[in-house]
Write a structure and sequence with these properties.
52% of the residues lie in helices and 5% in strands. It contains nine helices and four strands, in the order ααααβααββααβα. The strands form two sheets. The protein has a two-stranded antiparallel ribbon with strand order 1-4. A two-stranded antiparallel sheet has the order 2-3. The chain has one domain (3-197). The two termini are 29 Å apart. Bound molecules: iron/sulfur cluster (SF4). The site of iron/sulfur cluster (SF4) has 10 residues, from loops.
Length: 200
């Protein structure tokens, strides 16, 4: 698939993409505008590559297998998605972002998702809907390995580090530039920003 086609599919002319927005979060290290553009190009290119998408899907299957064995408790509190309130951050890599934006654009989503996005002011995750994940099948790795089960903390840490190293190696194997960015910054690079802060 060509880069142009990938751009079309993941929203260059579609629902989710807007011009690169000026919105920035107080995340360190911040990407400058050139880096944001480089990230965006890398994500578009990776999103248009079936090999990348399949590798990420297989990676998520492996993560799921680990979780199914350990079975940490999830009480569906939704707190893992309210970053400021619970003082944590979600970070993503280039290929996770690529798989996410591709699936976000290609699948049908409930109207409630759009409503939540329209009300988003920049705090928490824009995909949380009524306390639950509105994009559960395509959520990034960090969401799949985070549990509020205090007894599984060391396991989560070990899993995160091991699997993140795997993700990093996958970038090299797939020829995709490696970025590791805060979730909202990655979304902003792809034109997904709070509506009030988006350019028209
Ligand atoms: S993608 Fe889903 S699980 Fe992850 S932070 Fe957003 S709402 Fe929460």
């Amino acid at each position: 698939m060509s880069l142009k086609k990938a751009r079309d599919i993941v929203g260059g002319a579609g629902r989710i993409a807007r011009q690169l927005a000026p919105f920035q979060y107080t995340i360190s290290p911040m990407l400058d505008s050139t880096q944001m553009q480089t990230l965006r190009d890398a994500v578009y290119r990776a999103a248009g590559t079936a090999q990348v998408r399949e590798a990420v899907a297989d990676f998520y299957r492996q993560v799921r297998a680990d979780v199914d064995i350990r079975r940490p408790v999830c009480n569906a509190s939704g707190r893992c998605c309210r970053f400021e309130e619970f003082d944590h951050r979600l970070f993503v890599t280039t290929i996770e972002l690529a798989a996410f934006v591709y699936e976000l654009e290609m699948r049908s989503w409930p109207a409630e998702n759009e409503s939540a996005r329209a009300k988003w002011t920049g705090g928490g995750c824009p995909f949380q809907v009524a306390g639950l994940c509105g994009v559960h099948p395509i959520r990034p790795f960090g969401c799949r390995i985070f549990f509020c089960d205090p007894g599984s903390g060391p396991w989560q840490q070990e899993q995160y580090e091991r699997r993140h190293s795997q993700l990093k190696a996958m970038h090299q194997a797939l020829g995709v530039p490696y970025f590791y960015v805060e979730w909202r910054q990655g979304l902003a690079a792809m034109g997904i920003t709070p509506p009030s802060l988006s350019r028209t």
